[in-house]
Write the structure tokens for this entry.
Amino acid sequence: MTRLRERKNNREAVLRSLYGAVERNRPEVSGSVLRAELCLPDEDLSAACSYLADEGLISVDWTSHRTPAAVSLTHEGIRLMEELEEEQGEHGRAEKTEPDG
């Protein structure tokens, strides 16, 4: 069984990969491409996609074997990733402007 930290990392990796695809004007990613890019076993990718779909962050077309055939970010998923990107940008600027102690 995958540990909690690994499951969270898998979910984050799926979101980041899909967000990167959206930035490259690829709104949908095939499950096989996602699996290969993230080097995740079917069961871990399926678990991550199931969780994220239940949260309303991604949309998944499933194969008959319950593995992702096609995956895309929902509007809510894009908003979440944009918020995270903005937060990271603000943290990066704050670190650069802090005086050396």
